[in-house]
Design brief:
two-stranded antiparallel ribbon; 14 helices; 2 strands; globular
């Protein structure tokens, strides 16, 4: 859908702010997304951005409604994994598992399929099925030595599931593998590994130095997804209610 030039510029400015703030200040990003929605609720990119802003602030019912609206407009399955994770956030892991078995998953690219696997494993854990979660994560992508953008998170999730199952030695190994692949600090694998190894971090400064105001570092510290003009769309979008609950990792 095309917009008049001035309106399109206003919408674009708000979407830029959503993208800029969503990690460091998700509530502010959410506020900008609401402005964009009021201006252009029939634009798929606006609905998607609003969905991610709501998701980042744990407004899972609202996020799911926006993702559904975007999907109806575009026909794309790209948002399928995050939609399933919204179901987890709403306390419906069974629905997330159902979505993991739908034909849409086969239409996802490799990154999307890995993301869906992570969501499905999380849903298994939500239901107390830790062994099934571990099996869900075991895949050619996990076994591969190649490193992709999703590799650190996949290895981390596997290590975390192993640890919950009491398989500490294996968990240590996979936290190590996650840390090796995590060049951008997407996970806290290094901290988890240090915790398993019993490493404690201490302040390198003595009390006297600290009181004197001298600068110092902590020695050995590991570095550590509106308004609606169309009433029919609104009714369909918000059928799931407003119950928000955080998804577990």
């Amino acid at each position: 859908m095309s917009l008049p030039k001035t309106l399109a510029e206003d919408v674009a400015r708000n979407l830029v702010m959503v993208a800029r703030l969503i990690d460091e200040d998700p509530e502010q990003a959410y506020a900008y997304s609401r402005i964009a929605l009021r201006l252009a609720s029939r634009v798929a990119a606006v609905r998607e951005a609003a969905g991610f802003a709501a998701y980042a602030t744990q407004r899972y019912a609202e996020a799911l409604a926006e993702f559904r609206a975007s999907r109806r407009m575009t026909g794309s399955v790209e948002l399928w994994p995050v939609m399933a994770d919204c179901e987890r956030g709403l306390g419906r892991p069974e629905r997330a598992m159902d979505m993991a078995g739908e034909p849409e998953v086969q239409k996802l690219d490799k990154a999307g399929q890995v993301e869906m696997r992570l969501v499905a494993a999380g849903a298994r854990r939500d239901m107390g099925q830790i062994d099934a979660a571990i099996v869900t994560l075991q895949s050619p992508e996990l076994a591969s030595s190649a490193v992709h953008s999703w590799t650190p998170r996949l290895r981390y999730a596997y290590a975390d599931a192993l640890l919950e199952a009491g398989r500490e030695d294996e968990a240590r190994e996979w936290f190590g593998k996650a840390m090796e692949a995590d060049k951008d600090g997407a996970t806290d694998a290094s901290d988890r590994l240090a915790e398993l190894d019993g490493v404690e971090f201490v302040d390198a400064l003595g009390d006297d130095d600290a009181h004197a105001g001298e600068a110092g570092d902590v020695e050995g510290h590991a570095p550590v997804g509106h308004d609606q003009d169309d009433e029919d769309d609104e009714d369909a979008d918000h059928e799931d209610g407003d119950d928000d609950r955080s998804a577990k990792d």
